[in-house]
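Running this now, will post back.
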Amino acid sequence: VTDTYGRTAETSSTYKIDKITPSLEDEIIKISDGKKTVSSTDSINVWFNQSALTLSGKIIETNLDSINMSYNGKTVIVTPVNNFSITESFDFEGKGVINFVIKDKAGNQLQKQISLNIDTTAPTITTASFGVEGKTSNADTTTLTKEVTEAATGSGIAAYYVGTTSGFKVENNILKEDNETIDLKDKEKVPEGTNYLYLRVVDNAGN
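Update: finished.
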């Protein structure tokens, strides 16, 4: 600025230009239930059997401003730190989609969508019967007849097991791969005398 006598004054200000969009290290968000941790690149094929899950990631951005997570019409504000982590109790069952919007102070934003599959309900054994039930037998095998249901939003049946004690270990399973034939020949697993047969059904979420 110059006045009528030729004297001048000036001032200055600075500003930053930022045209770089925030990014995620390895382009992933991690999902954990405390027992297993899965990358968002693999989560489409993984089921969790609890609704309280921790999502975390590392954001590469020097001017980070905000992180929002949304699902089913609900938006959750995540503390905007580069190494972020949030534990959320998700209110859906079945296959879901989680959206992240990560913004910097210049308005550049990254949108990240991940798959999240939740099944907290165990399969239901409607009926189960064994061919030797109530009998005295010297047969090497017997049959299993069963009817099992899974919720419409369920993860699907992963495996069937039969054992001779309640809470038996999987390695003591005596059901063959066809899921219909029970092997009675192994005397360590099926000793002489009165035995009880227990059917266990496990879904893909581990219920």
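Residues 26 and 135 are 60 Å apart (CA to CA). More later if anyone needs it.
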